[in-house]
């Protein structure tokens, strides 16, 4: 099994029932990338308003993704291959006003 910590903050947690931190186990039969993780999150954790989290097949602009505190842009974006015990954080940078 692939063990991940998935965190939501900056308001993104509102889309996930106000739960900021999730400990998840994913079947290790396939290689998990951020692309596959986003689909899994949509199908398993997202409570409402998927359009506020995803746009087409990627993350919506305005949501920063960090993997082990590193910007996913530096790691290969959607193609980053997840490793056991990775911490994946989604931070909304969009705020109402």
Automatic annotation (TrEMBL):
Transmembrane stretches, start-end: none
Chief location bin: cytoplasm
Pfam families (UniProt xref): Urm1
GO cellular component labels: cytosol
Post-translational modification remark: C-terminal thiocarboxylation occurs in 2 steps, it is first acyl-adenylated (-COAMP) via the hesA/moeB/thiF part of the MOCS3/UBA4 homolog, then thiocarboxylated (-COSH) via the rhodanese domain of the MOCS3/UBA4 homolog.
Pathway: tRNA modification; 5-methoxycarbonylmethyl-2-thiouridine-tRNA biosynthesis
Modified residues (1-thioglycine): 97
Residues in cross-link Glycyl lysine isopeptide (Gly-Lys) (interchain with K-? in acceptor proteins): 97
Protein's UniProt name: Ubiquitin-related modifier 1 homolog
């Amino acid at each position: 099994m692939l063990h991940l910590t998935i965190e939501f903050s900056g308001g993104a947690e509102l889309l996930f029932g106000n739960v900021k931190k999730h400990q998840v186990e994913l079947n290790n039969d396939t290689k998990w990338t951020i692309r596959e993780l986003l689909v899994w999150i949509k199908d398993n954790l997202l409570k409402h308003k998927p359009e506020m989290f995803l746009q087409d097949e990627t993350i919506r602009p305005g949501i920063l993704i960090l993997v082990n505190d590193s910007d996913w842009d530096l790691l290969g974006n959607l193609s980053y291959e997840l490793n056991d015990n990775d911490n994946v954080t989604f931070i909304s940078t969009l705020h109402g006003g």
